[in-house]
Amino acid sequence: MNRPQIEEPAFARRVWEVMEPVHAVTYFAGECREANREVGLRGFWMGYFGARAAPLGAVAAGVVEAAFYNFHPAMVRRAVPDAWTFAAPEAVLRARAAGATAALRRVAPSAAGAAAELVPLLGRVVGVADGAGRPLFAANRDVPAPEDPVGALWQATTALREHRGDGHVAVLAAEGLDGCEAHVLFAAAEGVPPGTLRENRGWSEDDWRAAAARLAARGLLDTTGAPTAEARALRAHIESRTDTLAVRPYRTALTPAEAERAAALLGAVADEVLGSGTIPFPNPMGLPARRP
Question: How far is Cα 173 from Cα 196, in angstroms, rounded to an integer?
């Protein structure tokens, strides 16, 4: 007899909105920035690229450019491969786990209790998720879970957010949108200040204008730079397809009741993270403000 399954791909978006804040302490919390500094990584962006890429090993810049997708290549190359001359990936992995664990324990007191239920549930999802074509997910899946349950929770959320992200990149590439074009379209459709994305992804104003011109030539931006109906339809398709790809391991691993329980527990932890002011809004991750 087949057990009930999660029916709606929209569940994947809902769980991303409560999972991303838990993961994102690694970028914004003081404990995480200090951990990167202490291990030897120099400056915020070397810390960002080094820590996020560390599960891949001491890879070249081209690998990071491809996997991260939406950064200007020159921005990546200012940090990688130099990062590996300051700290080995194995040391960076230990530092990022320790920093994220300390940060979550500080800003989200409920994480310790929630981890007892969440780690087994999310571990099942990670275990059944397909790593083919998903380099960041596959690399994070192979990172041993920290002994600290809060650290294990952070690692599980990190693997699953990279699973969704890898799928999103595949859809963007399939639709012929490069990294800068994806940002221009997102900013136009969502009203995000372009400077927020340009400055955090390394694109110049000339890069931005050129990407906008390419989108306009495809009929995706009008003469004022606003998204056309075709652009909105394309964005809806991209997000829907991303959700459909992301929901598969949840449907395989969890019953609907287990999935709802996981989302509720993650939501409580996420609310504490967001309530602490650790994550800025707007942010370059595209995470929408969540009302507790």
Answer: 23
